[in-house]
Amino acid sequence: MAFERDRQQMIADIESGIAVTRMMTGRDHFNPRVMDAMRQVPREDFVPADMRHAAFRDGALPVGHGQTISQPYIVALMTDLLDLTKDSVVLEIGTGTGYQAAILSQLVRQVYTIEKIPELAEAAQRRLGAMGYGNVEARCSDGYLGWPEKAPFDGIVVTAAAADVPPALLDQLGPGGRMVIPIGLPYMHQELILITRDRQGETERSSILGVAFVPLVKGA
Ligand code: SAH
User: Fold this and answer.
1) Using the 8-state DSSP alphabet, how is residue 215 labeled?
2) Count of domains in the chain?
3) Based on C-alpha coordinates, what's the Rg of the chain?
4) Stated pTM of the model
5) Domain CATH code at residue 20
6) Which residues form the catalytic set?
7) Whose CA is nearest to atom 10 of ligand 1?
């Protein structure tokens, strides 16, 4: 299979990332289902054609419109932190290429994903459809507002950095739900934050590790 060695290297890089960060994340391994999804989803098909050779690199990659696809380890970490099950319904903010949505689609019942740049939203929608990821619904709108008609969500993952947690997203996180979101200013220190909501509705935040994301931009 094409890119098979690169794919194996990517998995090895994710495993080293897990080992290096385990004190911060509290996780010394990721769920095997998450690792299987990372193995199975063809990352090379989500990056621009002239970037395919670099698709498996251990870093973020530009995908046009000033946006980036996250480093494989970060995609795996954010997915793992959500503790998803086959019955979960999850919301992603920042569809970008659709790669993270495709990973999520392997693990849950339904994925909803929102992108604010129309060209990226359309391309991702087309790609996910053509590749057969049937349980992903995508739309072009302002992710700050979430997708209230489809709430509550068991998991919410925000793949762009916000200064604060968007209140609508917090409202749409169901009991027992988990949200992973990078918080911080553009090009400044950002922290990956995990928010959990218990069955009584109380939320708790913990900081996982320092990250670098493109900004979540308000307004569609
Ligand atoms: N998850 C993507 C990478 C996301 S990059 C992937 O797997 O490829 C962050 C994305 O968030 C960019 O595409 C950017 O356009 C989008 N974005 C930024 N602000 C947004 C907002 N308010 N609502 C929805 N999407 C937003």
Assistant:
1) B
2) 1
3) 16
4) 0.97
5) 3.40.50.150
6) 70
7) 94
